[in-house]
Design goal:
Shape: rod-shaped
Strand content: 15-25%
Largest sheet: 3 strands, antiparallel
Distance between the termini: 102 Å
Length: 179
Amino acid sequence: MVKYNLNRPKETQIRGTAQVNHHFGKGGTYRAMKRSRGLAIVEFSIVASFFFLLIFTVIDLGIYGYVKLTMQHSVREGARYAVTGQSNLDPDLLGNREAAILQKISTSSDGLLSKVMNVDDIRVEDTSGNAVTGFGSSGEIIAIHLDCEWPTTSPYIYPFLDDGKYKFTVSAAMKNEAF
């Protein structure tokens, strides 16, 4: 049976016949504070690691979103240029329409095109899904597809992705003008 003496301070109580002092003797308060300081460091390291995991994941997803939107913009600009039939953007100044369209896509991608895919792997299809040579003829509906890969920078997302890369396809479809 436990007896409590209500006349004594709360930190000193009597249990049975032995007296329990919660200060652990002389200097006990200092030792208890050192232990709680060590515990605070452990708690901080656990919370900080979770916080950094969350921050790096958000940053990684933000970069992926930027890359995907930039590539969507570039394929749309390339399709808009392709339907006009122009070839004045050809870097070799030979009037090559395909080279001019690829140059427009590359310029609109802010330098990301060569980082996310091989330029030779750009697919151009008609409405039935058949491959089209060049970028189609006058009056033909074309769809330009870019199959892209972007590596993750977060080691926490890596296991959830195939080979640690975001894989996505951006497309744009338009009808060629009469040229």
